[in-house]
């Protein structure tokens, strides 16, 4: 029974990974049939697809009485996206910095992160605060599409080619939704059992194992892109994923159920998330021709390893 928890944990991670991939493929194909541009697909379908594991895991954890896993999943995932994913990818291949990442995306991510911190100072993320998060997310997505459409005159011509029929696309979306649901259940339940058996808090499990698991899609995609030297996954995409995690995942989850936030997460983990976000800003300067060099990737990856060490040291 003890070993089965590890098997279920691994199985849950694999199901979440493949289900998220299926959701993106099905969504892109469906968007192509409706003549929706690649930009809109990227901002909506792909962003939701890569954050769907976080959403399902956090929602499931909140509803089953594991708020530390729910919050820790998002906070840990955001730290992993910057320190682990960007750090690892920059080591493989230095990343060019788009000026929009500094001028628009990073300030919005930092603003959302600070607002999240202020909201949970009373140890709860309330339903009305979740509504504010979702409204801000909608504003961000609409504004991003409008800004990109204004800057790109060829916007209307960039329509993706449909690789699947409408029936198959709908089938992929349905299958991925079912997979995400069962994958989230397996991941949360097995993580809780392991935490109980080892005497490790759900906070630690959520911030490390669960957060890493839900960041696997970003890590795998970024690594493959670096090896192929096709840097479609840019710094801006990771920043966008972090924005979606806070405003979308926590927003929707807290609307459905008010989330309790432990003092440890408020006084340490969220502050570490704010710290790594600010460090990213320093590393992607200057405004023009900036680059995330390999040594910066090593620095980010080192930050992640130190953070994981400090989390487990608190046990």
UniProtKB/TrEMBL annotation:
<dbReference type="InterPro" id="IPR004837">
    <property type="entry name" value="NaCa_Exmemb"/>
</dbReference>
<dbReference type="GO" id="GO:0005886">
    <property type="term" value="C:plasma membrane"/>
</dbReference>
<feature type="transmembrane region" description="Helical">
    <location>
        <begin position="297"/>
        <end position="312"/>
    </location>
</feature>
<dbReference type="GO" id="GO:0005262">
    <property type="term" value="F:calcium channel activity"/>
</dbReference>
<feature type="transmembrane region" description="Helical">
    <location>
        <begin position="36"/>
        <end position="59"/>
    </location>
</feature>
<feature type="transmembrane region" description="Helical">
    <location>
        <begin position="239"/>
        <end position="260"/>
    </location>
</feature>
<feature type="transmembrane region" description="Helical">
    <location>
        <begin position="104"/>
        <end position="121"/>
    </location>
</feature>
<feature type="transmembrane region" description="Helical">
    <location>
        <begin position="166"/>
        <end position="184"/>
    </location>
</feature>
<feature type="transmembrane region" description="Helical">
    <location>
        <begin position="127"/>
        <end position="146"/>
    </location>
</feature>
<keyword id="KW-1133">Transmembrane helix</keyword>
<feature type="transmembrane region" description="Helical">
    <location>
        <begin position="266"/>
        <end position="285"/>
    </location>
</feature>
<feature type="domain" description="Sodium/calcium exchanger membrane region">
    <location>
        <begin position="6"/>
        <end position="146"/>
    </location>
</feature>
<dbReference type="InterPro" id="IPR004481">
    <property type="entry name" value="K/Na/Ca-exchanger"/>
</dbReference>
<feature type="transmembrane region" description="Helical">
    <location>
        <begin position="79"/>
        <end position="97"/>
    </location>
</feature>
<dbReference type="GO" id="GO:0008273">
    <property type="term" value="F:calcium, potassium:sodium antiporter activity"/>
</dbReference>
<dbReference type="InterPro" id="IPR044880">
    <property type="entry name" value="NCX_ion-bd_dom_sf"/>
</dbReference>
<protein>
    <submittedName>
        <fullName>Calcium/sodium antiporter</fullName>
    </submittedName>
</protein>
<keyword id="KW-0472">Membrane</keyword>
<keyword id="KW-0812">Transmembrane</keyword>
<feature type="transmembrane region" description="Helical">
    <location>
        <begin position="6"/>
        <end position="24"/>
    </location>
</feature>
<dbReference type="GO" id="GO:0006874">
    <property type="term" value="P:intracellular calcium ion homeostasis"/>
</dbReference>
<feature type="domain" description="Sodium/calcium exchanger membrane region">
    <location>
        <begin position="169"/>
        <end position="312"/>
    </location>
</feature>
<dbReference type="Pfam" id="PF01699">
    <property type="entry name" value="Na_Ca_ex"/>
</dbReference>
